[in-house]
Write a structure and sequence with these properties.
The structure is a single chain. This protein is mainly alpha-helical. It has a domain at 2-53. It has four helices and two strands. It has helices spanning 2-8, 14-23, 44-53, 105-113, and strands spanning 69-70, 99-100. The protein has a two-stranded antiparallel ribbon with strand order 1-2. α1 runs parallel beside α3 and α2 (14-23) packs across α3 (44-53). The protein is elongated.
């Protein structure tokens, strides 16, 4: 249904399409969103007509922090000591790694395991 709304006005932003779908829905309980039925039942015809009448707005996402490198050295303080009922014979050696912005899992595996 969202694709048909977008087709009726391709210049709408994603948030405008969501607003059209939620604003044109037929409420089943209390007006607006509720936990049981959400915004209600989609009114397809009304949504398409609303989309045709809306002036497009630019979608500008909220910027978020995207560090180029990061690590946890000196940032973690254990509050309790890990314990086990018995030693299972396994010992793990942990090594510090730096993950860079844009790294993928396969890049990290190749870089650190060869």
């Amino acid at each position: 249904m969202a694709s048909k709304v977008w087709e009726s006005n391709p210049d709408l932003s994603v948030t405008q399409v969501i607003d059209v779908l939620t604003g044109s829905a037929i409420d089943l309980n209390a007006p607006g969103w509720d936990e049981e039925t959400g915004f209600g039942v989609v009114n397809f015809n009304k949504a398409v007509e609303m989309a045709k009448e809306i002036a497009p707005q630019a979608y500008i996402p909220t910027p978020f922090s995207n560090p180029t490198t990061w690590g946890l050295e000196g940032q973690v303080t254990p509050l309790e000591r890990a314990t086990a009922d018995e030693f299972n014979g396994k010992y793990y050696e942990w090594e510090s790694r730096t993950i860079q912005s844009g790294d993928t899992l396969s890049q990290n595996c190749a870089r650190y395991t060869g």
